[in-house]
Amino acid sequence: MIVVTGATGNIGRPLTRALAEAGQQVTAVSRHAATGTDTGTGAGKVPDGVRHVAADLAEPAGLEPALAGAKALFLLLSGDLHAGGADPADIIAVAEAAGVRRVVLLSTQGVATRPFGPTRIAMRALEDVLRESGLEWAILRPGGFASNALWWAESIRTRGVVAAPFGDIGVPIVDPADIAEVAAACLLDNQHTGGVYELTGPEVITPRRQAEAIAAALGSPVRFHDLTREEAKAAMSQSMPPELAEDTLTILGAPSPAELRISPDIERVLGRTPRPFADWAARHVAAFR
Q1: Sheet harboring 102-106: ordered strands across?
Q2: Is 99 exposed, middle or buried (0-12, 13-18, 19+ CB in 10 A)?
Q3: I need a labelling partner for 249 at 20 to 30 A (CA). Which of 50, 69, 102, 221 fits?
Q4: Residue 35: predicted pLDDT
Q5: Is the confidence at residue 39, as pLDDT, over 50?
Q6: What is the pLDDT of residue 41?
Q7: Which residue from 224, 208, 210, 222 is spatially nearest to 289, judged by alpha carbons?
Q8: Angle formed by the axes of helices 176-188 and 12-21, to 10°?
C-alpha cells in the first residue's frame, strides 16, 4: 500500500489517481474530509476505491492508522506546518516505525537556490533526516507551480483581469501534473531511489504571457494589470504569512540564474519534455470561466 499526503491538492489528486489506475492500493491523507469521488478535476475528492483518512501532519501520531501496512509514503507538507513550530522529522520516525520502506519527499527548489530563510532551512533539515533514516528515499525539488495562476481565477471570471507584480519577469513554472507523474515513478520504480530531482517547466514564462495563454484557452480577452510590490504583498498576505509573501516576491522579482535554469530532470524520469503552461491553462480553463 502507498500513502499519499496532501491527497486532495493539486499534486496529490493526480498522484493518487495515477497510482490507483496503476493497480496500487492507495490511502489518501488530507487534513479535511474528502468530499465525494474524483472525476479528474474536483478539489477535495479522491478516486473510487481509494481509502481516505483525515489527519493533521502537525500531529504525526495521527498518521499511524493511515500508515498501517504501508510500504511507501509520499510526503507533502503545507507551508504553515514549519511556521507552526511542528517537527516534520517526527513524521519520518512514525513512518519508519509503521514499517514504511520508501519515502518520496516534496521539497522545494529553494533549498538549493536560496538556502537561507526559516522554511527552507527546515526543509533542508528534513531532507537530511530522510537521507540518514535508513529508508529508501527520493527528493523532489520543484520551482514555482503553474497552478498558482488559480490565484487569478476570480478576477478573470469577474473582470477579465490578471493583476500581478513583475509582469515581464518570468521563471520556468512547472505543471503539478508533471510533479505527480515524477512522484509516481519514484514511488514505484527502484531506479529512482536516492535521487534528488529539480522539477521545472520547459520555458521561462512571465505573468503577462501566462495571462495571454489563459486568454487563448478561454477564447476571450484577458487584460494584464501590473501590481506594485506593495500592492502584491498586501494581497498575498491575506492567504499566507507576510514574511512568506515577502520571500515569494523577492524570488519572483529577482530570480537567480539557478531559478531560471530549465531542468532536464522531468525528461530524465518520464522520457518526455515537461508540459508547457499553455497545456495547463487549457486543461483548467473551467476555473476561469
Answers
A1: 51-54, 26-30, 2-5, 72-75, 102-106, 136-142, 196-199
A2: exposed
A3: 221
A4: 57
A5: no
A6: 43
A7: 222
A8: 40
Q: C-alpha grid cell for residue 213?
A: 495563454
Q: Where are the alpha helices (DSSP H) in the chain?
A: 12-21, 64-67, 79-83, 89-97, 110-113, 118-131, 153-159, 176-188, 207-218, 229-236, 242-253, 257-260, 265-270, 277-283
How far, in Å, CA of 271 to CA of 267, rounded?
A: 5
- DSSP 3-state assignment of 281? helix
- 235 vs 232: CA distance, rounded Å: 5
Cα–chain center distance at 11 = 5
C-beta neighbour count of 62 within 10 angstroms:
15
CA distance 195 to 72: 16
Q: With contact defined as beta carbons under 8 Å apart, do 171 and 187 qualify?
A: no
Contact in structure between 133 and 92 (CB atoms under 8 Å): yes
Residue 42 CA from chain centroid, whole number = 16
Buried b (16+ CB within 10 A) or exposed e, 111-150: bebbeeeebbebbbebbebbeebebbbbbbbbbbbbbbbe
- Cell, residue 222: 484577458
- For CA atoms 75, 79, 80, 82, the dihedral sign is positive
Average pLDDT, the chain: 92
Would you say the pTM of this structure is higher than 0.90? yes
Summarised one tens digit per residue, pLDDT across range 139-180 is 999 999 999 999 999 999 999 999 999 999 999 999 999 999
Query: 66 and 29 in contact (C-beta within 8 Å)?
Result: yes
Pair 12, 30: CB distance under 8 Å = yes
